[in-house]
Write a structure and sequence with these properties.
This protein has two domains: 4-222, Rossmann fold (3-Layer(aba) Sandwich), CATH 3.40.50.300; 226-312, 2-Layer Sandwich (Alpha-Beta Plaits), CATH 3.30.70.100. It is elongated, with a radius of gyration of 23 Å. The chain is of the alpha/beta class. Strands 6-7-8-3-9-10 form a six-stranded mixed β-sheet, sandwiched between helices. 35% of the residues lie in helices and 29% in strands. The protein has helices at residues 44-51, 73-77, 95-105, 110-123, 139-151, 169-184, 196-202, 242-249, 273-285, 299-312, and strands spanning 4-15, 18-29, 33-37, 59-64, 67-68, 80-83, 157-161, 188-193, 205-210, 213-219, 229-236, 254-258, 264-270, 290-295.
């Protein structure tokens, strides 16, 4: 399809007999934000490095904007902005000088470099630091500067690898807000992460990978109907009776009930959003006075753990 701007076909990478990426088939449509999720060592960074021309695949193909990344690297990358791994800059330069350097490497005109430097530094909230030496910057500020460098030539495709890794909570929020703003500007975003919660908050779709194999691609909006088991905390006004606990255990979808003589129950439940709503009604019908009814694991975490368990088995 014409609007598929990132495509991989049986993409594989091996190192001395170890398979880091195993026949990855993935398609990302234009103006979509896709979270590429998996634990450390799952193949995420290998994929990103192949997509950005830093690694060659052992076999298979990867295309950006229709161009083969291996055979037509310059054309494939001309409309791509990427942040791969931890960014480092010459400490004696300031953001304006650094972006001017990157702009010249890109072949941008002096006027374009000047206007885009102003725009991107505003976007990443570094305008006030534009003439400060980078050696004074925190890791989060360097990460934001790396994003500014990736956006300087106004690419339509953004590829980022673990962009919030190692940041403090404030830095994570700042970078997350930048990614959200890029979504509003009709950018296609492919972001790898091992943080499932933030990905579910930001992305339209998720691609789940483990041990080099793609497990599933799914719309974030549909995740709640797919996760097999979830843990639900139920806080009560008064202690439940033994008969109430027994009744709850036999309700449809209830896998397990943990109660340690407190005003809280932890229910392991199998079912989607509608089934959870039914469970809440049934608990009230059994005489429980409920203060809170909340899921302890995100739907994405539940689905991912289910899929990883299946792949291991």
């Amino acid at each position: 399809m014409a609007n598929e701007v990132l495509v991989t076909e049986n993409l594989s990478k091996s190192y001395s007999g170890f398979t880091a990426l195993d026949r990855l088939n993935l398609k990302v449509t234009q103006n979509t934000c896709v979270g590429y999720l998996g634990p450390n060592g799952s193949g995420k960074s290998t994929t990103i490095k192949i997509l950005t021309g830093l690694l060659s695949p052992t076999s298979g193909k990867a295309y950006l904007s229709g161009f083969d990344i291996t055979k037509e690297t310059r054309k494939a990358m001309q409309n791509v902005g990427a942040v791969v791994e931890t960014p480092e800059f010459y400490p004696y330069l300031n953001p304006k000088e650094i972006l001017e350097y990157f702009g010249k490497l890109r072949g941008m005109s002096k006027n374009d470099i000047s206007s885009r430097t102003k725009e991107t530094l505003e976007l990443v909230r570094l305008s006030e630091w534009s003439t400060k030496k980078v050696h004074k910057f925190s890791k989060g500020m360097k990460q934001r500067l790396a994003i500014a460098a990736a956006l300087l030539h106004d690419p339509s495709i953004i590829i980022v690898d673990e962009v919030t890794s190692g940041l403090d909570p404030r830095g994570m929020i700042e970078v997350r807000d930048i990614i959200k703003s890029l979504k509003k500007n009709d950018k296609t975003i492919f972001m790898s992460s091992h943080l499932l919660g933030e990905t579910q908050e930001i992305c339209d779709k998720v691609a789940l990978i483990d041990k080099g194999k793609l497990l599933r691609v799914e719309d974030v909006s549909n995740i709640g109907n797919l996760s097999k088991n979830s843990r639900i905390q139920i806080d009560l006004v008064e202690l439940p009776s033994k008969s109430q606990i027994s009744s709850i255990t036999n309700l449809p979808g209830v896998v397990d009930v943990k109660h340690e003589l407190t005003l809280s129950l932890i229910v392991t439940f199998s079912g989607g959003l509608s089934a959870r709503a039914d469970l809440l009604e049934q608990l009230q019908e059994h005489g429980l006075r409920i203060v809170t009814f909340k899921q302890l694991d995100s739907d994405l975490e539940s689905l991912y753990l289910d899929l990883v368990s299946q792949s291991v088995g």
